[in-house]
Backbone:
């Protein structure tokens, strides 16, 4: 699997999360004060990583 880059905002480690109900993945920053969530829900971990690494998933 593609490696997660550090958070684009604070440089902290990022981690993969999975929604509890639907099988969707997203990446969040582990720094609680940063609270960055990049990317909408993705159907696979790989896609969630790609979106995070591109840093273009900030649309609300
Ligand atoms: Zn961060």
Residues:
């Amino acid at each position: 699997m593609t490696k997660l880059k550090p958070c684009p905002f604070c440089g902290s480690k990022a981690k993969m999360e999975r929604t509890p109900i639907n099988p969707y993945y997203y990446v969040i920053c582990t720094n609680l004060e940063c609270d960055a969530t990049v990317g909408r829900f993705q159907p696979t971990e790989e896609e969630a990583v790609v979106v995070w690494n591109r840093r273009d998933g900030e649309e609300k």
Notes: The CA atoms of residues 6 and 14 lie 6 Å apart. The chain has a mean pLDDT of 84.
